[in-house]
Amino acid sequence: MSTTTEPTGAPKLTDELLAFIAEWKSRPGSLIMVLHRVQQTFGYIPRAVAFEVAELLDVPLAKIYGVITFYNFFKLKKPGRNQIQVCLGTACYLRGGEDIVHAVEKQLGVGLNAITPDGEFSFEAVRCLGCCGLAPVMTINGKVYGKLETGQLPAILAKYRQV
């Protein structure tokens, strides 16, 4: 999908998104469906786009931000090119998830909920990835790495570094 920007650089709804919103506007659950599509397009929900969606759906902006902040799937900041999630659910935590978090922080030089200065990686902890039998688990761009040991991280991260 292509995205367009205003002269100021602020993201703007594409014709494709405008058509999607028009199609979903009168359907129940339209707000979440529209926000999913916006995030699929931009990788996050840009502030300027949230304002446009509020106007087009005739929904208060506060309701949009209520949905965005309630569901951890939605992002308000542009993520890194590679999105890392480390599970800290019970099984992963007990099997060393916190050690994985600390090792990734050390490797990337940033803490949780941060983006590396070069924009290559964004890093967050999540409560469950649904892979308890593979604990501890990390995903990068949706690819699952299970039964992780901290010593494996440099090689895994190296695969994703832009050359």
Describe this structure in words.
With 163 residues, the chain is an alpha+beta fold. The chain has two domains: 4-70; 82-160, 3-Layer(aba) Sandwich (Glutaredoxin). It contains seven helices and seven strands; from the N terminus they run E-E-H-H-H-H-E-H-H-E-E-E-E-H. It has helices spanning 15-24, 30-42, 47-57, 61-70, 90-94, 97-108, 153-160, and strands at residues 4-5, 11-12, 82-87, 114-115, 121-126, 138-140, 143-145. A five-stranded mixed β-sheet has the order 4-5-3-6-7, with helices on one face. A hairpin with a 5-residue loop joins strand 4 (114-115) and strand 5. It is elongated. The two termini are 25 Å apart. Mean pLDDT is 91; it is low at 1-7.
**Total count of strands:** 7
CATH superfamily of the largest domain: Glutaredoxin
- Which band does the percent of strand residues land in? 5-15%
Give the CATH topology of the largest domain.
Answer: Glutaredoxin
Head-to-tail CA distance between termini: 25 Å
Question: In terms of topology, how is this protein built?
Answer:
Blueprint (H helix, E strand, L loop, with lengths): L3 E2 L5 E2 L2 H10 L5 H13 L4 H11 L3 H10 L11 E6 L2 H5 L2 H12 L5 E2 L5 E6 L11 E3 L2 E3 L7 H8 L3
Parallel strand pairs: 3-5
Antiparallel strand pairs: 1-2, 3-6, 4-5, 6-7
